[in-house]
């Protein structure tokens, strides 16, 4: 079997078109233009690219985009003063502080400072708790995108065996909660899982989110399984020339594609869904904050 390759760029574009449609309606019917503020602390080159792409995508969808670039030595007090300002700004509905942040800052404390209603990363204790208890939450963008892609690809997920490899607050844990909510039988595997190969072999759905290049070989995959590779790992690529690098996922694509039913590539799989779902979450937040109906097709 050779797997169907799931095109994250195309699906991301579809989500973004849906977002733009909702935005146009919110502006026309309610004079409400959703606004997203992205805060970047320091000069991490990859983060600079992601933040720029978020700004471009936000404007393309017809939303207000605000970028705050702070120096690498920004203090907690200065960052919190900015977050407080954004929390109070009625034209801003989503706030995202780009991670990683420099060492003097705590990701956990930053997230706690953001109004949970504007927490478009879904990382606050409030949103994690709402999701875990089956209530309306803001859901982290990458797992939200993975869930939308799984539903689009497989239809109902009910009764399927799903394994999430990785237990981060940003991806692994919310992904497992979303799959559980769609009535999957969910296992979270991680570095201490006793027989990870056997655990993965049982799964109809594999979501790999560990950040270890090509950790999951094809012979761990159940024939026909749907494989979602969240990993974005930069590795040396001497074949492209000295000092060159390339991106690979957490799954060994070449061997896994021979076994899987469907698989996401890296790049061009899950990555583009993260930004598309950030836009979706901003629209959702704007609707909720203003007491309007949930946007259809943009929430989990
Ligand atoms: N506050 C947050 N920080 C970070 C998040 C996040 O969700 N919230 N996620 C990542 C970075 N990220 C978005 O912020 C992100 C990463 C990758 C992509 C993407 O489209 N990747 C492309 C490849 C890009 C490349 O060539 O380098 C792909 O996979 O096709 C989008 C967004 C960490 N920080
Ligand atoms: Mg981190």
From TrEMBL:
GO BP term, pick one: purine nucleotide biosynthetic process
Residues annotated as domain Tetrahydrofolate dehydrogenase/cyclohydrolase NAD(P)-binding: 140-288
Keywords, sorted A to Z: Amino-acid biosynthesis, Histidine biosynthesis, Hydrolase, Methionine biosynthesis, Multifunctional enzyme, NADP, One-carbon metabolism, Oxidoreductase, Purine biosynthesis
EC number: 1.5.1.5, 3.5.4.9
Pfam families: THF_DHG_CYH, THF_DHG_CYH_C
GO cellular component: cytosol
SUPFAM superfamilies in UniProt: Aminoacid dehydrogenase-like, N-terminal domain (SSF53223), NAD(P)-binding Rossmann-fold domains (SSF51735)
Domain of life from the UniProt record: Bacteria
Catalytic activity entry: (6R)-5,10-methylene-5,6,7,8-tetrahydrofolate + NADP(+) = (6R)-5,10-methenyltetrahydrofolate + NADPH; (6R)-5,10-methenyltetrahydrofolate + H2O = (6R)-10-formyltetrahydrofolate + H(+)
Residues the entry annotates as binding NADP(+): 166-168, 232
Pathway in which the depicted protein is active: One-carbon metabolism; tetrahydrofolate interconversion
Family matches, as InterPro entries: Aminoacid_DH-like_N_sf, NAD(P)-bd_dom_sf, THF_DH/CycHdrlase, THF_DH/CycHdrlase_cat_dom, THF_DH/CycHdrlase_NAD-bd_dom
GO MF entry, a single one: methenyltetrahydrofolate cyclohydrolase activity
TM stretches of this protein: none
Residue ranges occupied by any Tetrahydrofolate dehydrogenase/cyclohydrolase catalytic domain in the UniProt entry: 6-121
Subunit structure: Homodimer.
Family from the record: Belongs to the tetrahydrofolate dehydrogenase/cyclohydrolase family.
Its job: Catalyzes the oxidation of 5,10-methylenetetrahydrofolate to 5,10-methenyltetrahydrofolate and then the hydrolysis of 5,10-methenyltetrahydrofolate to 10-formyltetrahydrofolate.
Official protein name in the record: Bifunctional protein FolD
Organism name: Pseudooceanicola batsensis (strain ATCC BAA-863 / DSM 15984 / KCTC 12145 / HTCC2597) (Oceanicola batsensis)
Lineage start: Bacteria, Pseudomonadati, Pseudomonadota, Alphaproteobacteria, Rhodobacterales
